[in-house]
Amino acid sequence: MDFTLSPADEARRLSVRQFVSEHIEPLESVPDSFDEFENINLTALHELQGKAKAAGLWSPQAPTSRGGLGLSIVSRVSFYEEANRSIFGPVCFNCAAPDDGNIAVLAKVGTEAQQDQWLQPLIDGSVRSAFAMTEPHPGGGSDPGMIKTTATRHKGGWRINGHKWFITGAGVASHFIVIARTSDDARRGLTAFLFHRDQPGFRIKRRIPIMGPEEHGGHCEIEFDNMDVPDENRLMEIGDGLKLTQIRLGPARLTHCMRWLGLAKRCMSIAADYVSEREGFGIRLADRESVQLKMGQVAHDIQIGRLLVMHAAWKLDQGDFSRKEISSAKLHVANTLHTAVDTAIQLNGARGYSKDTILEWVYRYARQARLVDGADEVHRMVLARLYQSERDDYWHWDTNG
Fold first, then answer.
1. Is 173 strand, coil or helix?
2. pTM of the prediction?
3. Which fold has domain 7-124?
4. Is the pLDDT of residue 401 over 70?
C-alpha cells in the first residue's frame, strides 16, 4: 500500500484543481448559473463539459478505448476530490452519480453490443442514466432481498411490473438499469435489465421534493406496468442481480466519499479564510483556542477519511470486494462532511447561514450523505457482523505472497 501519487496522477490532479478554480467555482456566485432545483443550469453545464473534454479531463472512470481516461480506482481518488471542490464540479467532468457508477458497471459487465448501445452515449455525455433499485415499503431498500418488482418470462423476453422510488436522476435519464425479481431464490432471485425511458409500460409517477439541492433529474418515484424488455437487454446472467449490485454499489459508495472529501475540504477553506480575517474583542478568530480546536478536529477527520478511502480503493484495485473498508469509509466520510460544513457555518456565523457562501447549500446536501447508499446504521451493522465472524482477524495486515 503506497499512497504516493504517480507523476501522471499528480499532474492530472493539479489540472483538475486549476480547471475548477478558473472555470467552475466562479459560477457559484452567479445566480443565473443555477437552475430551478439549485444545480448548475444546462447551458452553463454543456459549455463547461465541452471545455473539460478539450482539456482531456473527461470521463475518468471510462475505458480509454471508448473515450475515457481509464483511471484505476486509486487514481480516481485525487481526481474526484479535486473535482468536488465546487458544488458543480463532478457533473462537468462526467463523474457525478448516478452516471459515474453506471458507466463503471456497464464497462465491467456489459456485452460489446450493450456497451455500444447503452454505455457509449453515457461516456459521450449525450444521455443521462439512472439505477432503479430502491422501493417503498414493503419493498427493498438497503436490503435488496426484499425487492418486490418482478420480471417474468414473456414472448422470448421479460415483462416487468413494480414500483421504485428515490431513483436519482430519473427525471432526465434516458438509459436505466433496473433490478427485478426473477425467482424466490435467496441468493439468485434478482436480475438486472436495461431499458429506455420511452419504452411503453414505464412512467415517472412524481419527482419527490427533498430538503436539499437536487441532482439533475431529481429523485423520482417510478412505476412499471407490463413493460416488455428483450432478453438481449438483460445484464449478466439470470439470477446475477445481487452480484451486479455488489459490483456497482461498492465502488459507487467509495466515489461518493471521494467527492464528499472535496466538499469537506472546500468548507474548511471557506472557514479558514474567514477566521483569519475576522476579529472580535481585539483578537482574530483564528487565534482563539476554541476556533483552533474546531478546525484541528475537522482537519484530523478529513485526513482519516482520505486514508480510509485510499485503502478501500487500493483493495478494490487488487480485486477485493473491500466490503469492510468501503463501509468504514462511507460511515466516516459521510459524517465528516456533515461536521465540516456545520463547523464552517458556525465559524462564519450569520454569513455561513446566508447564501453569500455555498455553505448553506452544502449543509442541506450533506444531510443526505448519511442516508444514500446505505444509512449509517446499516454500515455499522455490516462492520459488527464482519467483526463477529473475523474477531482479531478483522484488523489483519495485508501481506505480499
1. coil
2. 0.97
3. Butyryl-Coa Dehydrogenase, subunit A; domain 1 (1.10.540)
4. no
